[in-house]
Amino acid sequence: MSTIIGIIAFIVFAPFAGGLLSGIDRKLTARMQGRIGPPILQPFYDVKKLLNKEILLINNMQILFMWCFLVFIVFTGALFCGGSNILLVFFVLTTAAMFLVLEASLTNSAYATMGANREMIQMLSYEPMVLLTAVGFYVATAFSTGTGTFNLHEIVDNSPIPNIVYLPGVFIGFLYILTIKLRKSPFDISMSHHAHQEMVKGVTTELSGGLMALMEISHWYENVFLLLVVSLFIICDAWWSIPLAVVVVAAAFFLEILIDNTSARVKWDVMLKSAWAVTLVFGCINVFILQLI
Amino acid sequence: MAKVAKSPWLLHYDGSSCNGCDIEVLACLTPVYDVERFGVINTGNPKHADILLITGGINSQNKPVVEQLYSQMPSPKVVVAVGICACNGGVFKECYNILGGVDKVLPVDIYVPGCAARPNAIIDGVVKAVALLEEKRAKMDSEGGNNK
Ligand code: SF4
After folding, report:
1. B106 C-alpha to center of ligand 1: Å?
2. DSSP assignments along chain A, one per residue
3. CA of B129 to the centre of ligand 1 (A)
């Protein structure tokens, strides 16, 4: 029963939460820059506007792939909220990202193709850490309860204390790649929110009207899902873990916005090397130590 | 006035200008004027834009560029000419290479005068453009032939 409630709650509420988060993000960004900023509901106005615009198609397959992208992102979050296997959740997420790459590649546009290439480099950068996060939870549950598990229900129910206690390194590594996944500066190399860039809008360059709206909505779902993964580090069997998780997720989100506003975009090789270095140093060593003791 | 009005995205193109108006358009984005308050985003992509904001006149080199940018924008779309150069060529009007204002090549909807156009005037022009966008949007709906 709780599985179904979780899935429905995600599908229904995630876009609202995601849109609000995006609005809060833009407001905070504006405040950090000394501006007043748009209303919190601005992302919803934008999507409504986009849905009412003409769609200029280059290739009919664009529609199919954008829908696939959205459906797979929603599926990822639904699996997660339904308490499925964490490995499966991450694999579905990767599949979703591939659809975005496909969509951008088949437009034959210089900027979108460049965005697609960079999107793949981004995947290459964050994927090891994402997998290591799943492994981290397995090792942590094995450490605390004796039997390791990838099942999300069991990870939450069998942990007497938040898993972050066992996985501080993995948590830092995940926060690092979260910047890439949230498409924040300095790692917004495949799609930038700012005008006048060398790649225009990267993977989203050729998306107009309703297709861009699909992209925005997928992005909202994805952001909510990613923040839920952050909360998984905190939520455990005890009631107090839930308010604590809210605080930690809010802090992580604020940190990402702060980094976004205080750093310039890096080149892809810096992103790749640093992401792998962080994965290796924080993630791998953390998991290794847990294995040894 | 709800659909486009709250979220007009701009595409800014600087034609053959002295860059005075160009800088004033960018000034609109700074903390002093902050057009993002009204949901305005300066997007660099014609496919995302609702308003084509052009500063500076048209010469034979930028004519095809401007035409292509306009053709790549999805409807409804509005063209705003900012500064006297964009309106009719301004001080450069007599130059051998200048064809004239933006209306020589595109259907300009809003003219914002000034040399340089003040940010207040530019924002006013954008607000007028937003109202016009809504009109065009309603017209698109009533004609029914749009590809949504
Ligand atoms: S109108 Fe004046 S300030 Fe603007 S581009 Fe022309 S000459 Fe420069």
Report:
1. 19
2. -HHHHHHHHHHHHHHHHHHHHHHHHHHHHHHHTT-----TTHHHHHHHHHHTS----S-THHHHHHHHHHHHHHHHHHHHHTT-BHHHHHHHHHHHHHHHHHHHHTT--HHHHHHHHHHHHHHHHHHHHHHHHHHHHHHHHHHHHSS---BHHHHHHT-SS-GGGT-HHHHHHHHHHHHHHTT-TTS--SS-SSSS-TTTTGGGTT--THHHHHHHHHHHHHHHHHHHHHHHTT--SSTTHHHHHHHHHHHHHHHHHHHHHH-PPPPHHHHHHHHHHHIIIIIIHHHHHHHH-
3. 21
